[in-house]
Amino acid sequence: MTYVCLADLERAAQGVLPGEIWDFLAGGSGTEASLAANRTAFERTFVVPRMLRDLTDSSTETDILGRRAELPMAVAPIAYQRLFHPEGELAAARAARNAGVPYIICTMSSIPLEEIAAVGGRPWFQLYWLRDQKRSLELVRRAEDSGCEAIVLTVDVPWMGRRLRDMRNGFVLPEGVTAANFEAGADVHRRTRGVSAVAAHTAREFAPADWDSVAAVCARTNLPVVLKGILAVEDARRAVEAGVSGIVVSNHGGRQLDGAVPGIEVLGEVAAAIAGGCQVLMDGGIRSGGDVLKAVALGASAVLVGRPVIWGLATAGEDGARQVLELLAAELRDAMGLAGCESVHAAGRLSTRGPRYG
Predict the structure, then answer these.
(1) Which of 227, 229, 231, 232 is nearest to 278 (CA)?
(2) What whole-number distance in Å separates Cα of residue 276 and Cα of residue 45?
(3) Residue 307, Cα to own-chain centre: how many angstroms?
(4) How far apart are the first and last CA of the chain?
(5) What's the CA gap between 285 and 250, in Å, rounded?
(6) 46-48 and 351-353: which strand pairing?
(7) In this protein, which residues make up the domain named FMN hydroxy acid dehydrogenase (predicted)?
(8) Would the N or C end of the chain have less CB density within 10 A of its end CB?
(9) Does the domain at residues 6-349 carry the CATH identifier 3.40.50.1820?
(10) C-beta separation of 274 from 280 below 8 A
(11) Candidates 85, 189, 252, 345; catalytic one
(12) 151, 225 contact by CB (below 8 A)
């Protein structure tokens, strides 16, 4: 089937996934105000295109953490991808490899991180800080040994936000799907009315990360360290002082604090405040190549794309994930050209307009 935009794949994925698995993917926390605001904020942001530019040698290539990428994007970490397709993370990682963009392996992947990293390309590893610090740092070692190129420490999940869809569904992982990087226990498959088994599991396993956690990760690895979940300028400045290589401006796709500001709303402020002290990435609400252009114009070196890749995975496995990344690439090339940008660097010099939260 031919898909001409990501919304087509979203509808197709919803049509093939069981209702509670769709809710696990699509839902946010609380009233889902931040989930909706992520899209509204993009729709209220506009770029000022430039004309009469030489577009002869236009390119979407860029540098992300010191390595070339074909596009200013990476595939975001999403847990338990075998929920959506039998090949899960392996299929999505192959699509990212073939698209020439990093693939971020989630701590809660449903296939061991070593097997996913063996796909090749540019694997990164996303780390949730665990109650057992030794296990956290052991995951960092495993990621290093497997050839991962960066550690992405997620800092906005001291515990999982109240995701009401999952609570209403009494969501559990189906048999055969579990946290493959460490023992999850049988209770992730045991249904309890009004309780998300996944949230209960993470409440037992996760601990709030702090600046000592950041220091411990940086001391443990020579890989670039990226902090995911930064929204405040003060936290961004402190991240630079801590010596990290990058931050991801993110409200966790509207899945943690309901009411947290959309990343695109504060991206420009954060990028300006740290003035190149580290690379700035962002995620939350990317649904087109035009959205990628807006994020770059506001100061992002790259974006993370999450749910849309899973729509493709659910619809047609690796081929579906590939179509998502190809659509984004085609839309980005079109948007850059129409905005008069021959390069990602030029896109970063575009002016933007739109209301901002004060």
Answers:
(1) 227
(2) 23
(3) 8
(4) 44
(5) 10
(6) antiparallel
(7) 1-357
(8) C
(9) no
(10) yes
(11) 252
(12) yes
Secondary structure letter of residue 129 according to DSSP: P
**Chain centroid to CA 340: how far?**
28
162: helix, coil or strand?
A: coil
Domain extents in the chain? 6-349
Phi, psi of 15 (to 5 degrees): -70, -25
Q: Is 237 helix (H, G, I), strand (E, B) or coil?
A: helix
Read off the amino acid at residue 314. Answer: A
CB 62 within 8 A of CB 344: yes
For residue 317, give Cα distances in angstroms to 9, 27, 305: 12, 21, 16
Of 65, 100, 77, 74, nearest to 304 (Cα)?
74
Q: Are 279 and 301 in contact (CB under 8 A)?
A: yes
191 token code pair:
């249904």
Residues in contact with 174: Cβ distance below 8 Å, sequence separation at least 6, in sequence order: 83, 189
Q: How far is CA 339 from CA 47, 322, 343, 349, in A?
A: 8, 26, 11, 11
Query: What gap in Å lies between CA 243 and CA 250, rounded to an integer?
Result: 19
**Helix, coil or strand: residue 266:** helix
CB 261 within 8 A of CB 38: no
The structure tokens listed for 268 are: 């420009």
Write out the chain's pLDDT in tens, 358 residues: 889 999 999 999 999 999 999 999 999 999 999 999 999 999 999 999 999 999 999 999 999 999 999 999 999 999 999 999 999 999 999 999 999 999 999 999 999 999 999 999 999 999 999 999 999 999 999 999 999 999 999 999 999 999 999 999 999 999 999 999 987 777 899 999 999 999 999 999 999 999 999 999 999 999 999 999 999 999 999 999 999 999 999 999 999 999 999 999 999 999 999 999 999 999 999 999 999 999 999 999 999 999 999 999 999 999 999 999 999 999 999 999 999 999 999 999 999 998 665 4
The whole model's pTM is what? 0.98
Q: Residue 124 in contact with residue 151, Cβ under 8 Å?
A: yes
Centre a 10 Å sphere on the Cβ of residue 1 and count the other Cβ atoms it contains: 9
Q: In the structure encoding, which two tokens stand for residue 290, read together?
A: 């035009």
